[in-house]
Write a structure and sequence with these properties.
The protein folds into 3 domains: 103 residues, no CATH class; 109 residues, 2-Layer Sandwich (Beta-Lactamase), CATH 3.30.450.20; 168 residues, Reverse transcriptase/Diguanylate cyclase domain (Alpha-Beta Plaits). Helix 3 packs antiparallel against helix 4. It has 14 helices and 13 strands. By secondary structure, it is an alpha+beta fold. The longest helix is centred in the first third of the chain and has 54 residues. The relative contact order is 0.06. It is 55% helix and 21% strand. It has a 6-stranded antiparallel sheet with strand order 3-2-1-6-5-4, with helices on both faces. Strands 8-9-7-12-13 form a 5-stranded mixed sheet, sandwiched between helices. It has a two-stranded antiparallel sheet with strand order 10-11.
Length: 406
């Protein structure tokens, strides 16, 4: 083949035919394969086209052609390699920009869905930039705003919450740790909103804290739900009186006061007389209405320092605070009996019930809630056995002196 085509080729043609191969190899497969292709192309051109037939002598024209071929091929390889790197870098940059835009959009969507505000606090100036959402959370309008924390933020926060929050912020800046707090915001219309804040301290190259960035969330609904749950857990749903759980907490508080300064108290256990007949005759709804009216009458006979609780069915208990003499408890029992004896109108019908009461004195009859409650309960059942609509003390000798309600 060499002998057939060699005489017919124009000068320099062999190298021109090999350049596309070098260019394509470099572009498609990279610099390494391009160099290999250039070497093979140069050797092929040298052997098949440059040397005279039947000769392997390297004269000046052959050497010049090879040098030119090598230079052009090397330049092609370098330029194409550089273009590939630039193209890769541009593609990577576009991919990163697209991913960043997607993540930013997702972050904005998440913040919007969570009603989250963002803030940046500058350590040196004591100023903070609040996003539009955080400004709304503070009742400061609907646009991004820059504020002075001491001058603009503190007056809007309940005093104790502001002091605690700024103390937590200072501690986070000093230690470089995370910042987390809850506080109440007083809006211009008098509304109180609960917010929670999360932040991260950012430092400069020397490790000096320069800013704190974070998020804020309005947690008012959660706080209201927690309050409602706490109420349901400690208050009776029918009478709205404290239930057994809150009664035990109040009882424990009175025991602490007794141990601390010796202040005695009385425990009264109450059970309605003839309540079952009302419940069976008029129905449970009427029974609940009766219990609610009894609760109102009980609370109207005690002091604000006393506790009235419903612990189940038609059973009530009263903690009479600072009761130093049995006569004080007897006087309360008489007031209760007279108040309950007044006829009630339930669902349009007159209803009459009575109440039996057992009284225990602390510390005379016990110091534990179980002991004192058992003593008052036994006195209650003694009152029921001895005629109902009366009261008895756990100490029988006191009961004889106190008498009963006619």
């Amino acid at each position: 083949m060499r002998f057939l085509i060699h005489p017919m080729l124009p000068a320099g043609f062999p190298f021109i035919t090999f350049f596309p191969a070098v260019v394509l190899a470099t572009y498609l497969f990279g610099v390494g394969p391009g160099i290999v292709c250039a070497i093979m192309s140069g050797l092929s051109a040298w052997y098949f086209f440059l040397l005279p037939p039947n000769s392997f002598e390297l004269d000046r024209s052959v050497f010049t052609a090879l040098l030119l071929f090598t230079s052009v091929a090397a330049l092609d390889i370098v330029l194409i390699g550089a273009l590939q790197r630039v193209g890769f870098s541009l593609r990577a940059s576009r991919i990163m920009e697209r991913q960043l835009a997607e993540r930013t959009a997702l972050l904005d969507l998440a913040l919007q869905a969570a009603n989250a505000g963002t803030w940046v606090y500058d350590v040196a100036s004591g100023r903070a930039v609040l996003s539009a959402e955080m400004a709304r959370q503070h009742g400061l309008g609907d646009a991004e705003i820059e504020i002075d924390v001491e001058r603009d933020w503190r007056p809007r926060i309940l005093a104790d919450d502001a002091e605690r929050t700024l103390t937590d912020l200072g501690r986070a800046i000093a230690t470089g740790g995370p910042f987390e707090t809850e506080f109440r915001v007083l809006w211009p219309d008098g509304t109180v909103r609960w917010l929670t804040g999360l932040g991260r301290v950012e430092s400069d190259a020397t490790g000096t804290p320069v800013r704190v960035t974070g998020l804020s969330f309005d947690i008012t609904q959660r706080k209201e739900a927690e309050t409602q749950v706490a109420l349901l857990a400690r208050y009776d749903s029918v009478t709205t009186l404290p239930n057994r759980l809150l009664f035990k907490e109040r009882f424990a508080a009175h025991l602490d006061t007794l141990e601390r300064d010796g202040t005695p108290f009385a425990l009264l256990c109450l059970d309605l007389d003839r309540f079952k007949a009302v419940n069976d005759t008029l129905g449970h709804l009427a029974g609940d209405m009766l219990l609610s009216e009894v609760a109102n009458r009980l609370t109207s006979t005690v002091r604000v320092t006393d506790t009235v609780a419903r612990i189940g069915g038609d059973e009530f208990v009263i903690i009479q605070a600072d009761t130093r003499e049995p006569s004080c408890a007897a006087a309360l029992a008489e007031r209760i009996s007279r108040a309950i004896a007044v006829p009630m109108v339930i669902d349009g019908l007159p209803v009459e019930v009575g109440v039996s009461i057992g009284i225990a004195m602390a510390p005379r009859d016990g110091l534990a809630v179980e002991h004192l409650h058992r003593a008052a309960d036994e006195a209650l059942y003694r009152a029921k056995r001895e005629g109902r609509n009366t009261f008895r003390f756990a100490d029988a000798s006191i009961a004889l002196e106190a008498g009963s309600v006619p």
